[in-house]
Design a protein that fits this description.
- The protein is an alpha+beta fold.
- The protein has a single domain, classed as Alpha-Beta Plaits (2-Layer Sandwich), CATH 3.30.70.20.
- Helices cover 16% and strands 28% of the residues.
- The strands form 2 sheets. It has a two-stranded antiparallel ribbon with strand order 1-4.
- Strand 2 and strand 3 form a beta hairpin.
- The longest helix has 5 residues.
- The chain is globular and about 25 Å long.
- The model has no long low-confidence stretch (mean pLDDT 97).
- The structure holds iron/sulfur cluster (SF4) (2 copies).
- It comes from Parolsenella catena.
Amino acid sequence: MAHPVINADECVACGVCVDTCPCDVLELEDVATVKDEDSCVACGSCQEACPAGAITEIAED
Ligand code: SF4
Ligand code: SF4
């Protein structure tokens, strides 16, 4: 399983990662959060798209 690691202190809540993810893994609350970790395919699109550098890694566990 994989999931993006989001640094809430850096997230500016723009929603770009939510819109970019092809698997509907993320949602925007006060900051971007992982709502469906099981669907993440570790493509890295959210990390590449984040303008704030708030997604620090795609963790595989
Ligand atoms: S790594 Fe890919 S599938 Fe996983 S949350 Fe980011 S955009 Fe979605
Ligand atoms: S793209 Fe980055 S700054 Fe924008 S909501 Fe997602 S994690 Fe936050």
